[in-house]
Amino acid sequence: xxxxxYGLFFGDSITYGEYDGIFGGWVDILKRYALQQFHEGKxxxxxxxxGIGGETTEGLLKRMPYELAARNSAEGNIIFIxxxxxxxxxxxxxxxxxxxxxRSNINEAVHHAKQYAHDIYLVNILPVSQKIDGxxxxxxxxxxxxxxxxxxxILKDTASEHSxxxxxxxxxxxxxxxxxxxxxxxxxxxKGYGIMAETAIPIIEKYL
Length: 208
Prior knowledge:
Radius of gyration: 16 Å
Order of helices and strands: EHHEHEEEHEHEHHH
Strand order of the largest sheet: 2-1-3-6-7
Number of helices: 8
Largest sheet: 5 strands, parallel
């Protein structure tokens, strides 16, 4: 008997797949891959892209209990939590979500996820392009690569505290970030999303 497993991807615009007019972002690449494998695989893996552009962990906590209750399989779920790029952004010199609050929010999100899934994946934050490192964007947001390391460390620590999986997209794009990020210096381009999908495919393989 095939098991029906749901994969829920919570995140911001990088989970949603913004700026990728070709593949629709890394989650949508995974979604198509899972569908293609359906006939060969032992399980049916159904992926839900629950990314919302501009969202921080504050927004996540408001909707997460409802999203989880509405979409979960009795036969098993895997949950991806991909936040931080907006949380760490400063507006008017103030973090949208400061590091301590971020740590607390991620812990709370993990608590919600644990009620529905054994396998929880914390996804780290991509580096930003040199040209926007420390520079205010048109939307008035300022990000630095230095702070990305701080927030990624929080994610990494939380993953080890709770024995969760840690998905390291940061390292996957770091070396070639100037060609893997789109013009805005924050979102990946098609190439960048492709690299992210390549990193994540071995993860979902385990459930197919």
